[in-house]
Design goal:
single chain; 160 residues; two-stranded antiparallel ribbon; 5 helices; 2 strands; 2% strand
Amino acid sequence: MNQTTATTLNEWIAVIQETATTADAISRIETAKAEAASDRQHDRLDGYIQREQALILKLRGLEQKRTHLAESLGWKGLTFRQILEKSSEEERKSLQPVFDHLEEILHGLEHSRKASEQIINVRLHELQVAIARKEGGSYDDAGNVNLNSPYHSKMKDRYV
C-alpha cells in the first residue's frame, strides 16, 4: 500500500469513526426525547429536535465525504462486508473494529429511535383524545379518535 492510499484509508476510517460518534449523539438525543415525552415535558422537545436536525445534516456531510474517499480507494458502491472481502489482511485488522463499533452504535440508534417514536406516538394519541373530548368527538369502531363531533351533538334545541 502506497503512502497516498494509506493516508486516504486513514481519512476514510476517521470519517467512519466520526459517523459512529455522531450516530451515538443522535441516539442519546432520541433517548432524551423519549424521556421528555414520557415525563410530559413537551417544551424540551423542540430543543432536542433542533440539535438532532443539526446532527443529521452533519451525517449527510460525512456520508458524502465517505463516498468520495471510498471511490478514491476503489470501493465505490461496496458494502462494508464487500470492502472487508476485498481488503488485505492488514487493512482488515484496521477496518473490522471500526465496522463493528459502527454497527453496534447503529443498532443502539435504531432501538432508541423506535422507543422514542413509540412514546411520542402515545403522547400524540393522548392529545388527540383530549381534543376529541373537548370538542365532543368520539371513537370510531376501530378505536381511533374521531375528531369530528358526533351527529347528535350537532343538533340544536331549537324550534323552527
